[in-house]
Amino acid sequence: MTDFINKILNGDCREKLKELPDDYISACITDPPYNYEFIGHKWDETEIQRRMERVQDSKTLVKNIPYGSGLAGGVRNKRWYEKNRNNILEYEDWCYEWAQELFRVCKPGATVLVFNSTRTVAHVQVALEKAGFYARDIVVYRRSSGIPKGINMQKKLEQKGFENPEQMEGWHSCLRSEWEAVCVLQKPLSNNYTETLLNYGTGLFYTKMDNGGFQSNILEDIKRDKAPDYNIHCTVKPLDLMKKLVDIFVPRTKGSIVLDPFAGSGTTLVAAKQAGLNYVGIEVEPTYIEIIEKRLGDVSDSQETLSLF
User: Fold this and answer.
1) What does the pLDDT look like over 191-205, one tens digit per residue?
2) How far is residue 273's CA from residue 269's CA, in Å, rounded to a whole number?
3) Model pTM?
4) For the chain, where are the alpha helices, taking DSSP H only?
5) Where do the domains of the chain lie?
6) Is 85 exposed, middle or buried (0-12, 13-18, 19+ CB in 10 A)?
7) Neighbours of 198 (CB within 10 A)
8) Can you say how many angstroms the Cα of residue 287 is from the centroid of all Cα atoms in its chain?
9) Please, what's the b/e burial string for 57-81 (b: 16 or more CB within 10 A of its CB; e: otherwise)?
10) What is each CA distance from 127 to 36, 124, 131, 227, in whole angstroms?
11) CA-based nearest residue to 30, from 195, 184, 202
């Protein structure tokens, strides 16, 4: 059997997951493209740079919606809503595609965490449930700050010359976005938690906090990283956040392997290596694999001892 441990595979995870054996992965923590990023099914470096440069001098706050997609604005007519709905349904189908292979490679009791937007996390959960996973929770990652988005109606009416626009002070088209959703799912247990632990080393969450408290499903007060110059990825998650998720959801058992099928710049894999865990990464963009390998090369091997189970 090919040894995939501590390797990064280059390619579409829908195909690369087929190379992994059955019941191989102990936990999966991943941050796939969200539904707007999904438009066009293209995530190579050229396309990413095109999108970012296109909005460099723009006031728009959504840098991942391709111009010309019809989803970044426009008249909210029937066609607009149909287009948005179709986008979400196509995204759900795409999630179901890779979730089927992910289900096969996970051990019974393996926990799967998937980041997504607050608008579409439910569709991700449904897609993974359809593939066979069991929904366990939604973890809330509360960011240190949020950016108000949408229409400021007072300013909009001022621009159009309406009288008394101040009457609409405080009325906007959406709330300040301050949190991200992480859906938590699990491959069905082998009869019960004890049997699953003894046979597969999976199934449980680590809940003891540093202060002795019981771990909540809300994660906050997590500092942001200052990315090194070579890390050009546009949506890097904080390392402390991924370390926290690894601490809670990845079992410290013999043969434990954490998978990230959308590895990006490798933050999940760095957190796994720092914890002394084995990992497998999959990334479609070759440029990012160079970044991952450089980041992993900067991590000293952990001396942490895993449990006997």
Assistant:
1) 999 999 999 999 999
2) 6
3) 0.86
4) 13-16, 35-38, 45-54, 78-105, 121-130, 153-159, 193-200, 239-249, 267-274, 286-297
5) 7-297
6) exposed
7) 11
8) 19
9) eeeeeebbbbeeeebeeeeeeeeee
10) 17, 5, 6, 33
11) 184
β-bridge mates for residue 23, sequence order: none
The closest of 66, 119, 131, 44 to 93, measured between CA atoms, is: 131
What distances in angstroms separate CA 177 from CA 117, 119, 144, 150, one per listed residue? 10, 11, 11, 10
* Token digits of residue 232: 């050009």
What count of Cα atoms within 13 Å lies in the side-chain half-sphere of residue 217? 10
Distance, in Å, from the CA atom of 112 to the CA atom of 184, rounded to the nearest integer, reads 6
- 72-128 pLDDT, tens digit per residue, is 667 889 998 998 898 899 999 999 999 999 999 999 999 999 999 888 999 999 999
User: Which helix (H) or strand (E) is 155 found in, with range?
Assistant: helix 153-159
CB 127, CB 96: distance < 8 Å: yes
CATH level 2 (architecture), domain 7-297: 3-Layer(aba) Sandwich (3.40)
| Distance separating alpha carbons of residues 80 and 121, to the nearest angstrom | 21
Computed over its alpha carbons, how large is the radius of gyration of the chain?
A: 21
